[in-house]
Amino acid sequence: MTYNTEKYDGKRLIILRAALIAIGAVIGGVCVWQYFVAYPDIMRKEFRIVIIVVSAAVIAAILGLSAKPMYRLIASVIAVFNRLTGSLGGKGIAAATAGFVAAGIVGYLFDMSVRYAISVIAVRVLADVLVSLLCVLALCYAFMRWLGAEAEDRTAVESVPFSGYLFTASCFSDDRVFVAADVLNNVKVSDSVFKALCVLGSDAAAADRLKVLLESGRIERIRNSAKFDTASQYAESEARLAISKRLRPVYFGGESVADGAVRLETFAACARNAEAPVQADGNAAASDA
Known about the structure:
By secondary structure, the chain is an alpha/beta fold.
């Protein structure tokens, strides 16, 4: 993505250039002055003021001439952060806040580590400020990209189409499960259904239907390692399994159905219009001639 930063706002550029010149003069003058304070015997006093003025003027001129590149850099950084915060909303603001806090901690640790290595206070403060600014930019960007990547991953997962169907335990309480198994493609059932049939208090016919469909190969068993003791816990585990496997759950009865799920009742018309009733063994009963 490109940013149109070639057009300069005249007033902002003048303000930025003046600010850079002032900052350069302060940095150049104060740092050299503090250096002479820390090492007074390095130069005669009558020459110090000249060196301080020259240093301040040189740094101010360098920063003043770099106003346009600095303008483009600031505009690009602002554009990136605006795009990230705009796409993340409140999470973008939280990420920026976390970046500032983390940068402050890094800046403090850096100051503690160089406190005794750099005796010139102005130089140490300048180093602390530069390190903190770089950390702010880097950490804010890192936090925003991290949250942005999570949002993109969730969007990608949500946009992936279903690859099949997952029969829940309630489906095996009705003969229409045979019709659904024949009509739908890539039908799965979790290996926790046998326990669920006991927990839900299903009759023996439900277990027979499950056994017939598994033995006939019309449905495939997949692993579900989730533990459950109640019907609600089982429903939650099946919903998580369906999401992870990109399967559309199939329910029967008055259960609360998740988004994108299918009710077994939708196959009622197929069951009534079938040429022969489906028996528990999964085969069509021979019609009386």
